[in-house]
Amino acid sequence: MTRTNEVLAYIVLAAVGILGPVFFENYIQQIAVLWIMVLMASTWDITGGQMGYNSLGNITFFGAGMYISAVVQISMGYDVAEYTAAFGAIKVDFTDTQYFTGIALGIIAGGIGAFLIAILFGIAVFGLRGPYFAIGTLGIAVAAGQFVGTIQYLGGGSGISMPVYPGGVDQRNVFFYILCFIITVISHIFLKWLYSTQFILAINAIRDDEDKAEAMGIKTGIYKVVAWSIAAFFMGLIGAVFGNMIGFIEPIEVAFPTATFGIFMVAMALLGGKGTLWGPILGAIVFHIIKETTWTLLLGWQWVALGTLIIINIVFFQQGIVGWLQEVKPEWFGLTVDSTSKKSEA
Amino acid sequence: MLDNLKLLFIWAPVMNVQLILDGIFIGAVFALTAYGLALVWGVMNIKNLAQGDFVIMGGYISFALFNAGFHPLLTLPLAMILMFGFGWLVYVIIIRRVIDKDMFTSLLATFGLSLLMQQVINLIFGPEVQTVDPDFKIYSAFDDFVTIPSIKILSLVLAALLALGVVLFMKKSRLGQSIRATAQDPRAARVMGINTDRVYAITFALNAAICGAAGVLVAMIWVIQPFYGIVYSIRSFAIVTASGLGNLPAVIGAGFGLGLAEQYTGIVFGAEYQVASAVVLLLLVLMWRQIKLRQKREVVR
Amino acid sequence: MNFNKLVLASISFVTGMLMLVFPLQAKVEGDKIILGSAISLTGKYATNGLHAQRGYDFAVERINSMGGVKVGGKTYMLSIKYYDDESTPARGAQLAERLIKQDGVEFMLGPYSSGLTKAIAPVTEKYGVPMVEAEGASRSLFTQGYRYLFAVLSTSEQYLSPSIDHAASMAKKNGKNPSSVKVAMAFENDPFSLDVREGVVDTAKKYGMKIVIDDKLPADLSDMSSTLTKVKAMRPDILLVSGHSKGAATAARQIGEMRINVPLISITHCEAAKVHEKFPKAAQGFLCPTQWSPNVPYSDSYFGDSKKYDREFKAAYPSYSAIPYQTAQASAAVLVWKLAFEAANSFDKDRLRDAISATQTETFYGKIKFSEAGNNIAKPMLMRQISGKKYADVVSANDLAWPRKVSY
C-alpha cells in the first residue's frame, strides 16, 4: 500500500477507535468486539496467510489466556478451588488493588501462558502439513474445551463467574474498551514491524516451498513454532480481556468456541485477503458489521445470511477484498502493473 | 477408575459384550459417513465440513417421510435419492467453483454451507429433538443384560451392504472406473475422454446419498436435532485423517475403533471424556504417523 | 475513486449502517411498552428457547387483548424485542448490553438456562435494569446479591432431590434402611444440571446413600449407552438424569432400547422433550420434576386457572400434547411485569424494581413472592410420574408407582 493511503487508513482507524466510543457511546462494546475480531484475524494470518499453515485451532490460546487469567485474578483474594467449587455461590469482594493487580497480572500471565502452550503444541503438530495440520490443530482446540470442562478446579462445565469490576458501568465499559483497543494496536504495530524484518521472508519461503526453504538453510522448525507462538501470545492477552469483559466464562461456548470464533477468524482473514497486513483487518471489519446487522435485521435467518455470505465470498472472491482490489486497482497499492508482479506483496 | 476396570473385567465381564456390540453399531454409522468423506476428499480434494449436516438432513428426510406414513425402511432409499439430487445441486452451485483451489477454499465454502443448512433445517422442522422410532423387535441375551435392538443389526447390515455396493460400483462399473481414474490423474482422465465434471458431480452426489443413508440410520437409532451435524463432521474427519484416503478397510476399521474407544472411555474414565477421547485418539494417530514418517524424512501431507 | 475515498466511503458506510440498524428506541414508544429478551433460537438450547418464547408471546397477546397495561391513566400495549443468543453465554451478555444500550430497553425478560442467565444478570445489574426471568434456576444466581434479578421459578436443587426423598421413604416402607439405596446419576456438564446434581448429592448424603455412578455427559453427546451399560451392571435403585431436552430424549430412547430395569427413574425436562409421546413405552413410570402442572389449584384474572391456560395454549399451539412448564413460567414472568407496571404506575426503573420486589400475587402458574435474593419462595416444585400417556401428580411416596411398571 502506498504511503499516503496507509497514513490515511491509520487516521480513519484511529478516528473510529478514539472518537467512535466518544460519539457512539452506546456502541462501545460492539466496537471493542470489533477490535478483538481484528486481532484474531490478523494474528491468524501470521501462520495462515504468511506461512501457509492454516490453523483451525488458534482459539485454544484465546481460551487458555482466559482461564489462566481467571486463576491468577481469583487467587489474589481467594482459594481458587474453593471459589469454583461454590459455583459462584460465595459473594465475592475484591478490593480495588486486588482487582487491578489481579487483572494486570492475569492478562500478562494469559499471554505468556498461551505463548508457552503454543511452543509445546507447536513442536507436536508442525510436522503435519496441509489439511492434516488444520485438522490436528482443530483437534487440539476441541480437546482443550472438553478437558477444561472436566477439571473441577476450573469449575468444570459450570464455568467461573469472573471478579466484578469495582467502578461504575460507563467506567467499566471504557476500561475494557481501552484494553481491547490498545492490545490490538500493539499487535498491529508489532506485526507491521515483524513484516519488515527478515522473519517475514523466512516464513514466506516456508509458505512457498518448505522443502526448498529447509534446503536453503532456514531452520523451518523454529520459525514455524515462533510464528505460531506470537499469534498465541496476542490471542492469550485478548482472551484474558474478553473473559473479564463478558464476566462469566465457561469452557465450550465462551473459552473454546471452535465452531464459531475458531472458524470465523479464518473466514475473516480470507474475506479480506490472506497474506496481507490489511486484508484481515478489512475482512474483520466487514464481517463484524455484516454479522451484527443480520443478527438484528434478519432474526431467524441470520445464519442463512452469514452462510450465504461466506459461500459467495469463497466462490467469487477467492483472493479476498484486498486481493481483488490489488488486481483491479494495483496503483492504489503502489504496484506497477506488470503481469509477473501482479500478485506480489505491497 | 480402578473400580470401573474391576467392574468391567471381574464383576460383570458380560458388559464387554454389550460395549463391543454398541461400539460396532456406532462405528458402522461413523464409517459410512467417513467413507463418503474419503471419497470426495480422495477423488476431488474437497474437505466437506457440511458432512455432518448432510447426515442430519438425511435424518430429517426420513423423519418427514416416516410421519407422512412411509415405512421406516422405505425412507432409506428415498432419502438416498433425494440427497443424491441435493448433492448434485450443491456441486453445481458451489463445489464446481472451488474444486481446483487450495484446501481452505473448500473447507470454508462447506463451512458456510453447513451454517446455512443448520438454520434452514431449523426453520423447516423446528429445533426440537426428533427421532424415528420404528418400534422393531429388541433381542436380548444374558437375562436382559445384553440387549440388541433389531434396528441396530439391520443398520449394520445396511451399512455393510452399502459399503459393498459402493466398492463393487467403484471396481466394476464403467462410471466407478472413471471416478477412480479421475482420482488418480484428472488431466490424464480428461485426455482419455472422461467427462471429469460429470464424474465430480456424481462423486459428490454419491457422498451426499451415503450421508443421507447414515442420517436415516442415525434418526432410527439415536436422536436428531438441526445443530448436531458438527459431531458427525468431526468424527468423520478424525476417521479419514487416521485411516488415509481411498482405503475402505482402513476407514471401516477406524470407524469401529472409534466406536469402541468411545464406549470404553465412557465406562473407564466416565462419560465426560467420551468426546475428548475421539479427538485425542486422532491426535495420537497423527503424532504416530508423523514420527514414523520423520524416520523416513517425510512429512504427513 | 481512489483508495482514500474508498476507505472514507467504507467508514461512513459503517457508521451509516450502525445508525440505520440500531436506532436508539425508547423503552416506551407511543402506546407500546418494549420488553427485551435474548433467547436461544439456535444452538443446543433452541428447543427450550422456543418453548419459552412461545410462553412470552402467548402472554403478551393475552394481556394486550384484555386491554393492555394501564400506567398513569394511559393504556399501553406490550411488545417484546428478541435477539438470538445462539445458546452461548458470551453472545447473551453482548446482546443484553445491546438491548439496554442501543435499543433503550429498560425492562428485561430472562433468557433460557442458568448459564445464559448467569452471563446476562451481571449486565442488567450494572445498568440497574430489572429482569424478571423464568428459566434460570441455579442457586448461584441468588447468592450474588443481585438487586434487579427476579425469578418466578423454584431453584434447581429442588428438581431431583424429592426423588431421593421418595426413594428413601420407599425403602423404609419395604423395611430397608434408606442408606441401603444405591444412586446412579448422569448429568450434563452445564451450570444448570451441575447445580441439580449438587442438590441431589447433598440429599443423598443426608440419608447416607451410596452414589454408585456419577457421570457427566458432554453437551454434544447423543449416545449415553456406556453410562446405561454401567447402570445395568451396578443395579442401582434409582437413576437420575438431567440434560435439558436432548438429555431427556436420548435417555428415554436408550433406556427403552437397553431395557433398563431400575425401580425408579427420574429425569428433568420430560414434557419439553415430549418423551411421553415419543417413547411411550420406555417412559412409563419416569418421575419428572416440574415447575407447574395443569392440575395446580391456582388462577388469576388473565389466564384463568391452570387448566384454562393449558387448554387455551394448546388451542393456540396445537403441536403440544402436554405444555412444558418452561412455557407456563415464561407467561408468568410477563404477567409479573404487567402487574409491576400497574403497581408502580410509572416507567421509572427503580420504582419498577421495588414494585416487582413487593409482588405478592397468585397466578395460574402458582403463587409469586420474591425473597430478598430474588427467587420465588411461594411456589413449591412438583413431581409427576408418567403413567400411560399422561402425567400423574406425585405428592408423597404413596402416590408413586414403585417399582415403575414397564413392559419392554
Description:
- The complex is a heterotrimer of chains A (346), B (301) and C (408).
- By secondary structure, chain A is mainly α.
- Chain A is built from 15 helices and two strands.
- In chain A, helix 7 runs antiparallel to helix 10 and helix 12 (261-272) packs across helix 13 (279-297).
- Chain B has a two-stranded antiparallel sheet with strand order 1-2.
- The longest helix of chain B is centred in the N-terminal third of the chain and has 30 residues, at 15-44.
- The model of chain B has no long low-confidence stretch (mean pLDDT 87).
- With 408 residues, chain C is an alpha/beta fold.
- Chain C is 41% helix and 21% strand.
- Chain C has 13 helices and 18 strands.
- In chain C, helix 5 (161-173) runs parallel beside helix 6 (191-207) and helix 12 (325-344) packs across helix 13.
- The longest helix of chain C is centred in the N-terminal third of the chain and has 20 residues, at 46-65.
- Chains in contact: A-B, A-C, B-C.
- Chain B binds chain C through residues 4, 7, 11-12, 15, 18-19, 22, 26, 118-119, 122, 126-129, 131, 133, 138, 140, 144-145, 147, 149, 222-223, 225-228, 230-231, 262-267, 270-272, 274-276, and chain C through 41-44, 46-47, 49-50, 186, 189, 214-218, 220-227, 229-230, 232-234, 245-246, 249-250, 253, 257-259, 261, 273-274, 278-279, 408.
Rg over CA atoms of chain C: 23 Å
CATH class of chain B: Mainly Alpha
Q: What's the arrangement of strands in the largest beta sheet of chain C?
A: 9-8-10-11-12-17-18
Give the class of chain C from helix and strand content and strand pairing: alpha/beta
CATH fold assignment of chain B: ABC transporter involved in vitamin B12 uptake, BtuC
Give a brief rundown of this model:
The complex is a heterotrimer of chains A (346), B (301) and C (408). With 346 residues, chain A is mostly helical.
Question: How are the elements arranged and paired?
Answer:
The complex is a heterotrimer of chains A (346), B (301) and C (408).
Chain A: H1 3-23, H2 28-50, H3 59-74, H4 80-85, H5 96-125, H6 130-148, E1 160-161, H7 169-194, H8 198-208, H9 210-215, H10 220-246, E2 248-249, H11 251-255, H12 261-272, H13 279-297, H14 302-316, H15 320-328
Antiparallel strand pairs in A: 1-2
Helix pairs in contact in A: 2-7, 2-10, 2-12, 2-13, 3-5, 3-10, 5-10, 7-10, 8-10, 12-13, 12-15, 13-14
Chain B: H1 2-11, H2 15-44, H3 51-67, H4 75-98, H5 103-125, E1 138-141, E2 146-149, H6 150-172, H7 174-184, H8 186-191, H9 196-221, H10 229-243, H11 248-268, H12 274-295
Helix pairs in contact in B: 2-6, 2-9, 2-10, 2-11, 3-4, 3-5, 3-9, 3-10, 4-9, 6-7, 6-9, 7-9, 10-11, 10-12, 11-12
Chain C: H1 3-21, E1 28-29, E2 32-39, H2 46-65, E3 69-71, E4 74-84, H3 89-101, E5 108-109, H4 114-127, E6 131-133, E7 149-151, H5 161-173, E8 182-188, H6 191-207, E9 210-217, H7 225-234, E10 238-242, H8 244-257, E11 264-267, H9 270-273, H10 275-278, E12 286-290, E13 299-300, E14 304-305, H11 306-316, H12 325-344, H13 349-357, E15 360-363, E16 366-369, E17 382-387, E18 390-394
Parallel strand pairs in C: 2-4, 5-6, 6-7, 8-9, 8-10, 10-11, 11-12
Antiparallel strand pairs in C: 1-2, 3-4, 12-17, 13-14, 15-16, 17-18
